[in-house]
What does this fold into?
Amino acid sequence: MSLQVNLRHLEDDTVRLGGEMPVEDLDLDVRDEMVRVREPLRFDLEVQQLDQSLLVQGRVSLVLDCECVRCLKPFSHLLKLEPWHCHIPLEGEDKAPVENDCVDLTPYVREDIFLAFPQHPLCEPECGGLAQQAGAAKHSVDPGTESPVWAELNKLKL
It folds into this structure.
């Protein structure tokens, strides 16, 4: 099932579309291993015909299952496009395909969802990353003290 609007219904008045769309029908080809989509797309849209184009307005939301790029902790991210506007031409070079008097809005929603995906998902902006391992902590040096390695090198008379 795709998100379609019938042009004949738009001749008299605007059309309201609302509900959920299964993620399989959205046909998202997510190649980012830090982002997964498992929950349905939620939408509340109003479509109206303007001359030889469609104006789609409303809101679209999708829950993303993400993994933090710093600490690898899983978290959920609500992707919200609110308000969402889309102008779809019905004539010309970029016209939308019309099949059985219906225009499929799914490609336009999909494109804007991809544009809104987090580039580097973080569980929180202040995420410090992976905790230091015990071995790494042994080699840390206080800024006020000299490293034992440098102390040995300073003994060399060159």
About this structure: The two ends are 78 Å apart (CA to CA). The chain has four helices and eight strands. Strands lie at 4-6, 15-21, 35-37, 41-50, 53-67, 74-89, 98-99, 102-104. The chain has a mean pLDDT of 88.
